[in-house]
Amino acid sequence: MDALFQLHHLSYHYQDGGLRVDILKDCEYSFEKGKTYAIIGPSGCGKTTLLSLMGGLEAPCDGYVEYDGENIEKKGFNNYRRYDIALIFQSYNLINYMNAYQNIVCAMDIAHIKEPNKKERALKILGRLGIHEQEAKRDIRKLSGGQQQRVAIARAIAKNAQVILADEPTGNLDYATGQTIIQNFIELAHQDQRIVIVVTHDQGFARQMDVCLKIEDGKLVEV
Ligand SMILES: Nc1ncnc2c1ncn2[C@@H]1O[C@H](COP(=O)(O)OP(=O)(O)OP(=O)(O)O)[C@@H](O)[C@H]1O
User: Fold this and answer.
1) Which of 41, 130, 167, 188 has the fewest CB atoms below 10 angstroms from its CB?
2) Predicted-complex ipTM score
């Protein structure tokens, strides 16, 4: 098995008025290269919390996340977030004073991507996602929600991160645009051998992923 990314006894709880509330309990899982994963479960079950732990945005209370044979906390969350993973948020988190291709070039600069012509590469990736040169150079705030989400995906692709974590990436989009985005994720995993993990409430999209996981009583289980 080609496991690049693993969860070991991952647990997370918080205190509420002196009471301990367990969100994730001893989660164990190995994610494989070249596969897409959906994480589903009712509101409040801990999906975003799990994504935050996997993304190195927050430290677990117990257990650890392993990437390429190393505990991400020991590797350093900042380096891990900078080089190894890409996060895609429901709210896109694009830099609003840069256009689409500048957002992508900026992400490549931050990740120290060695590429002789970053602008050309950015435009090429955007083009593959249906954002052509004219839109790529427009004020980013003037792009539609679906276009902005595709820019956020292009940014994740350009960064060469092996693991892509997306939190409700289709939440704000109509069905057809959401479907295009899911198709992009599938191609990214199957053609580029990346791991794509998507938190979604949409059962239809979840079913199109190679593996569907749900959080049940704090445990991560395959559906
Ligand atoms: N540090 C914290 N302090 C207080 N409450 C917290 C903390 N971390 C998580 N929670 C609570 O834990 C629960 C799980 O939150 P999380 O956002 O992970 O759920 P979710 O499954 O992503 O929900 P949704 O589908 O509604 O986005 C929520 O009730 C949230 O308010």
Assistant:
1) 130
2) 0.92
Please tell me the predicted confidence (pLDDT) of residue 86: 92
Whose CA is closest to atom 3 on ligand 1?
Answer: 14
H or E segment at 15? strand 3-16
Q: How far apart are CA 215 and CA 217, in angstroms?
A: 7
Q: Which domain holds residue 110?
A: 34-44+78-222
Query: Helices 100-110 and 118-128, interaxial angle, to 10°?
Result: 120
**Minimum-distance ligand 1 atom for the alpha carbon of 50:** 18
Residue 100 CA, ligand 1 centroid: distance in Å: 31
Written as one letter, the residue type at 136 is A
Could you tell me if residue 62 is inside a domain? no
List the single range of 57-61, 76-80, 180-184, 209-213 with lowest mean pLDDT.
Answer: 180-184
Q: Is residue 4 part of a domain?
A: no
Question: 127: domain CATH number?
Answer: 3.40.50.300
Q: Residue 1: what pLDDT?
A: 52
Beta bridge partners of 152: none
Which pTM was predicted? 0.90
